[in-house]
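Morning run. Coffee first, then this:
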Amino acid sequence: MHKVRVHITNKQKKSITPDIRDIVRSCAAQVLADEKFHDDAEVNVTFVSDEEIRTLNRSFRDIDRPTDVLSFPLGEGGSYDHDPAHGLAQLGDVVISFDTAVRQANEYGHSIDREVAFLTVHSMLHLLGYDHMNKVDERIMHAKEEKALNTLGIYRGISPVWAVEDLFERLSLRDKTIDLAKKRGVGKEDDTYRITRIACEISETSKPGEWYSCECIILRGGSIIGGYEVRFDTNGDMIDDDVI
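And here it is:
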């Protein structure tokens, strides 16, 4: 297996533990192994604050809000420049907001280690040319993420947010929400609106994965302009639904 040199820089106030640094390196190496990358490689991973990543997001994507991770590939079409001193393929840069990573780990009910692992794998795939601009590409990328994380023994725990998101996709509610947003004059998901919250209600006697309701709320600026709620039984069959 080819080697990868991972340069990790911390530009925010919270400590990045040795365990997290090891996870970043392991995830980078695993993605390259899965993709059978043909050369030794080099990648830069920088941890920043929400404020810093918001500045980068605004500068490079014209989106004025924090995000969890940004990827800056240096290659194109599978071709990369090589460091003349060491012959390493220059993959690019990954920038992770540690503030957002901590927040999302709490929201999803798993560890910060798992969240950083996912963001690293996700970004490494971006550096290798993968994207998720349509459903087919999204499924391909998701499968590759799961493969790398599962190989490393980093699994998603059962949590309300994760389970409802999974069901949300399976029932095609995301499409319904996007259609509703368009009817209300809102643009693309990554442009002027986003899915901001998924909520669920759980029966006291239910088992993990047996969910009863979930909703998506569309936010534009500081105002909620709509959403979509569905109720279903424990088999995943829709009972009724409402436009919010």
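The beta strands are 4-10, 41-48, 69-73, 89-97, 194-201, 213-220, 223-232, 238-243. Good start to the day.
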